[in-house]
Write a structure and sequence with these properties.
Elements: H1 2-25, H2 33-42, E1 51-54, E2 60-63, H3 65-84, H4 86-96, H5 98-118, H6 127-146, H7 156-169, H8 173-182, H9 187-196, H10 198-207, H11 236-241, H12 247-251, H13 254-261, H14 265-269, H15 272-293, H16 295-302, H17 307-321, H18 324-336, H19 349-376, H20 383-408, H21 414-429, H22 431-440, H23 448-457, H24 463-484
Antiparallel strand pairs: 1-2
């Protein structure tokens, strides 16, 4: 028995570490788009959209706003699909389990990386389906890894946020490709290597992930991997040996007891908590997506087109993305800080988790406001601070999003609810392309007014933590009334 426990603990730790590496390297690469755009421009992708114009003093200038707009459209579609496809992915994950979902992810990412590798400047439009497939596969990897937190009980939220932070940090992969490209290694060779890494994903799927789902709370004898994909229920003899003589506990699986007490999927979707959470995520995600999608032209404007200076700031932005994995766990620690402490009389664990999430939601909204203000000010050196605030806020947003859904709603609906929240926010994020077109057109390339509007819009994110706080206070009042009556 001790040997079995040791093997089980080793497998869980190995699952945690390999999952962290998978998220860190592969699961959010599309958000390193600004680094890849720098490489693609050198490779003359969409260069046919650059036109000669007559500038000041009758000089001939090259206007590449059409090229920038096309690159922005590629990222808009990819980032939209990364979030929107979480909805069908969530249903697939809840219905068919981990193995099927990850096989889809491996297939999509392999085809996507091969399409980028085989693309040329003459076939620039291949970037549209390639980045779309990469985004779809990445969202599968992210979703299937979130459940690993269920293996570590009291540290569940911390691990969920850690993994989401690793997804944010994976944006730095395109920086590595950019640096390799500058040292003489073609970006095509880099993408061929990424395609070959699918073998690693496949091995992890078989040996270190369940066929179905990792339940929460976790049964004591739960095992997974190549030998078993389902949790076990204790036999009658084992229960009797443990002193459990209640027939109801012996005959009814724990999962069945929980499901009877849980809300239906429809009740979750129709709740105020759900829709305010959608609003919270949507306004902040739009701000981030527009910033990432327009970073390259923004730096071109602030540096007056100096290539070496643009490259330096692009590198600084990509390097800060690596810090996402360091920032995200702090959000999880904020949400898990009450674990192990005595709860108020009659307070459930879910209610305590929900109450702990208020501070996390508020801090995330505050970070977004500060980030948006810094991004709005057209002062080049300030952008270093903008990059730092952006990565901290982004890691808090997506880690807090998954953690909040896991504590506010039943775990049996996690995939579907996470998918629906992401799909709604993705639809809202399509406004980024309209904002980019507005900046490039009527505003003549100056994003100041759009940035001010988005900063004001981000104030709506504060409604959600206030609503959760009032909800928790209402539950506490009801509990006090019931205790006194």
């Amino acid at each position: 028995m001790p040997g079995f426990v040791n093997r089980l603990s080793f497998r869980r730790c190995l699952t945690l570490i390999t999952g962290l590496l998978e998220c860190l390297i592969f699961a959010g690469v599309v958000f390193g788009w600004a680094s890849l755009v720098f490489v693609l421009k050198k490779e003359n992708y969409f260069s046919f959209l650059c036109v000669n114009i007559t500038g000041v003093n009758a000089t001939r200038d090259l206007d590449c706003s059409g090229q920038d707009e096309q690159f922005s459209l590629v990222f808009t579609i990819a980032s939209f699909l990364f979030t929107f496809l979480t909805l069908p992915n969530g249903f697939i994950f809840d219905r068919f389990g981990t193995t099927v979902s990850r096989l889809f992810a491996i297939f999509l990412c392999t085809i996507g990386t091969l399409m980028v590798a085989f693309s040329t400047a003459a076939s620039s439009n291949l970037l549209f389906p390639a980045l779309a497939l990469l985004a779809a596969g990445d969202s599968f990897f992210q979703m299937t890894n979130m459940q690993v937190g269920n293996l570590f009980g009291s540290h569940r939220s911390t691990i969920i946020t850690l993994y989401n932070g690793a997804v944010d940090s994976s944006a730095a992969l395109f920086l590595v490709i950019k640096l390799l490209h500058e040292s003489g290694i073609s970006f095509r060779s880099s993408f061929f290597f990424l395609s070959a890494c699918s073998v690693i994903h496949l091995l992890r799927t078989i040996f270190l992930m369940p066929r179905g789902h990792i339940p929460y709370p976790l049964p004591d004898d739960y095992t997974y991997g190549v030998t078993c994909g389902k949790s076990k229920t204790l036999s009658l003899e084992q229960r009797a040996a443990n002193g459990d003589t209640q027939k109801t506990a012996e005959e009814i699986p724990l999962k069945d007891v929980r499901v009877k007490q849980e809300k239906s999927f429809r009740e979750c979707v129709m709740s105020r908590l759900f829709w305010l959470h959608v609003l919270w995520l949507s306004v902040m995600q739009l701000r981030h997506y527009l910033f990432i999608g327009t970073l390259n032209p923004m730096l071109q404007r602030l540096t007056e087109g100096e290539p070496s200076l643009v490259s330096r700031y692009i590198n600084a932005f990509a390097i800060t993305q690596l810090c996402g994995v360091l920032c995200a766990p702090w959000n999880g620690l904020i949400m898990d800080r009450h674990k192990g402490k005595p709860r108020a009389a009659g307070e459930s664990e879910q209610e305590a988790d929900l109450r702990a999430s208020v501070l996390s939601l508020f801090l995330t909204a505050l970070q977004c406001l500060l980030f948006s203000v810094c991004a709005t000010i057209p002062y080049l050196p300030l952008q270093y601070l903008t990059f730092i605030l952006q990565v901290i806020n982004r890691s808090f947003i997506f880690g807090g999003n998954a953690a909040f859904i896991s504590v506010a709603f039943p775990s049996c609906h996690f995939g579907k609810l996470l998918g629906l929240v992401m799909a709604q926010s993705a639809t809202f994020s399509l406004l980024q392309y309209a904002c980019f077109a507005l900046v490039n057109g009527p505003l003549d390339g100056d994003p100041l007014y759009v940035n001010i509007a988005l900063t004001l819009l981000s104030l709506l994110a504060f409604i959600h933590p206030l609503s959760v706080y009032l909800h928790c206070r209402s539950l506490s009042s009801k509990r006090a009334i019931n205790a006194s009556s």
